[in-house]
Amino acid sequence: MLCGVYTERSECARNDSIFNMTDYSAKRYGPRLNEMMKDVLMEPDVHGPEAHYHMVRGGKDLRNITIWESGKVGKEYIKTYGHYHVGAISETYWIVYGEGITIAQKRMAGSDGEPIDDEIEEIRIVKVKMGDAVYMPRGWAHAAVNIGKTFFVTADDSPVNFEDVEPSSLPGHADYEPIKKMRGMAYYIVEEHGEPTLVKNPAYKKVPDAEIEDWRPEFAKKE
Description:
Elements: H1 9-19, E1 29-33, H2 34-37, E2 51-56, H3 59-62, E3 64-68, E4 72-73, E5 76-77, E6 84-85, E7 91-97, E8 99-109, E9 115-129, E10 133-136, E11 140-146, E12 152-156, E13 174-175, H4 177-181, E14 187-192, E15 195-200, E16 213-214
Parallel strand pairs: 9-16
Antiparallel strand pairs: 1-2, 2-3, 3-12, 4-5, 6-13, 7-10, 7-12, 8-9, 8-11, 14-15
């Protein structure tokens, strides 16, 4: 392109700004492999798929896409690892395809105001399908499972810093350590008699009773 000959200079300036943008395309994709998922599985020694789910990171503006494989590890449905957010970050999940269950939990706070990893104050478990949306409040951990026979696909608006060491698989806004320490979320979601069923994670000391709720519009509402 020859500026000032075949194009207006203002157009050249716009194109120059595009070509000078940092290219993060090679950092967008990351699979969550079975070896890492063993940290949070109900039955970590049971054979599982090489990759449980796939992440394509676009950040708050482009959105992030997550694709779950179908199937189970033992009786437990394929799921995400689960994490809390660092700082005051909330998030919305839009269900793009398939059927799944989202699980979100809030920790109790100690007398010093710090969260207690093995004591859960509130928990919300919701069955979702294509077209639904679920809001994840700040301070809550969240994960999701694929209960269908196809891929389960979501989009979300969590931020991503592509200068992180592993922005696709270990984004800096996500704190995985409390979930790793507790070997998963407060409930495992397994198949019993052909239906999703909740099993309490015995690593937690206090967990409220819960049930799988059908999606309602209020689950998409922000605080």
